[in-house]
Structure formats: C-alpha cells, structure tokens
Amino acid sequence: MSYPRRSPAHQSQAALEPQWGERFRMTVPLCFTTPEEEHALLSDLALGDLSALLRFGCKGRGTADWMAARGLPVPPSIYGWERLVDGGLLVRVDSREFMVENDLGGGCAETLIADLGPGADGVYRVQRQDAALVLAGRRAAEVLAQTCGVDFSETGDDFLKTRVALTSCSVKREPLGNVPAYRLWCEPSYGEYLFAALLEIVQELGGGPVGWECLEDAVNHAPD
Predict the structure, then answer these.
(1) For 182, which of 42, 86, 164, 172 is 20 to 30 Å away at the CA?
(2) 145 class by beta-carbon count within 10 Å (0-12 exposed, 13-18 middle, 19+ buried)
(3) Residue 1: pLDDT band by 50, 70, 90 thresholds?
C-alpha cells in the first residue's frame, strides 16, 4: 500500500484544522476557511505551502549537457533560472547542480526523474524534499522586510540564497497567476519552524493561511 507523503510543515498546519486532501501524493490542506475569505487573504497577505510540487534535482560533470540534450534551457550562471514552456522552474543551484520544480499545472519533473533513472555518465540524482512555502498578496514583501536583511524591492526576479526568520532559504519572486508572491525553499527539517514563524507575522499583519484550492484557483483562473 502506498501512503501519501506529508509536508515538512504538516503539524503546523494540522493545528489550524484545515480540510485535507491530496496533491501529487502528498496530504495537503485544501482550505482553512471559506473560498471567499481565502481569496481576500490571497490578494492582500497570505501564506501557503507548496511542498507537494514535484521536484527533480541532479548534479555532476555531465549534468548541463544531459539537460541540454533534453531541450532544457540551461542557465549559464549559478542561481540563474529559466521558466519552462511546459510549466515549472529550472534553477542552476551550483556550478554542476540543477533543480527543476513543476508548477501547479504540471511540468517535466516526473519525466526527468524517469529519464535519469539510477543515473547516467557524470549525472547523479539529487533527492529534493524541500519545504516550499509561498508568501502572496500585495503586502507579502512586508513580511520579508521584517524577517530578512535583503531589500526585495531591489532584487527583481532574482533567485537568492539568504536567511529568513533566521533560517537559510532560497527566495524568488514568482507570482501566482496575477497575484504577487514570493517563493521560499528551505531544508525540510526547518519547515515546521519557518511556516509557524511566518504565519505568526502574517496573522499579526491581518493575513492568514490559504490552502491548495485557493492557490490553484489563482493560477488557473487568472485573467489574461
């Protein structure tokens, strides 16, 4: 029997008593309150958990060539990134290491996992079990201003390594449809702490948590 995965921030969300569901073989909060309330939060200030999104990591001397052979646009510099035509994000996280993360509508991570299998010449699989959170809404940057020394008004869409709430994170501005948002990735062991720390600040500012149904709706029904 195959059991659903759990988010690195599962317990922090369970304390909020959401309605549960499953996405990408992970148990996720579908909603914490009503759709109307969550959509209002999302436009202003909200915290969500996207740890369930599929990720593919690989590294080694042959990795860039292996990815280019599959038609992927390989970023030339460390922390360079590309949005993929079939959905998702490709980031060069080190000179010989890459991460591909699907978006809410899908992507190529599963295909790449199957393609690489146990490995290829000079290419090795990296397990990516990141805690992946999203701060969304017009006031999302206010939370980062309280928890991080980087001025995100000057970083544009850069992929950055920094500290948020004393936790080592990668951060990137990455909208949800037409909703401004910042994506945060950290080691899974820090997922519970980071979610709880950010949620406390979000709630102090009048925001709150949102579930997957709200996040999906923002992406799937964004006006052109």
Answers:
(1) 86
(2) middle
(3) very low
Angstrom CA distances, 30 to 21, 130, 182, stand at 6, 20, 20
Helix axes 140-147, 191-204, angle to 10 degrees: 120
Cα 13 to Cα 105: distance, rounded to the nearest angstrom: 23
- Cα 7–chain centre separation: 12
pLDDT, position 213 = 98
CATH code for 5-51+130-220? Answer: 3.30.1360.120
Which sequence spans correspond to the domains of the chain?
5-51+130-220, 55-126
The rounded distance, in Å, linking the Cα atoms of 171 and 182 is 7
Cα–Cα distance between 81 and 155 in angstroms, integer? 14
CATH code for the part of the protein at 55-126 = 3.30.70
Summarize pLDDT for 59-114 with one digit per residue, the tens. Answer: 999 999 999 999 999 999 999 999 998 889 999 999 999 999 999 988 999 999 99
pLDDT per residue over 48-70, tens digit each?
999 999 999 999 999 999 999 99
Instruction: Write the pLDDT tens digit of every residue in 137-146.
Output: 999 999 999 9
Q: 93 and 169 in contact (C-beta within 8 Å)?
A: no
- Alpha-carbon distance of 51 to 65, in angstroms, equals 28
CA distance 180 to 104: 16
Whether 139 and 156 have beta carbons less than 8 Å apart is answered as: no
Q: What tokens appear for 125 in the block?
A: 């699989």
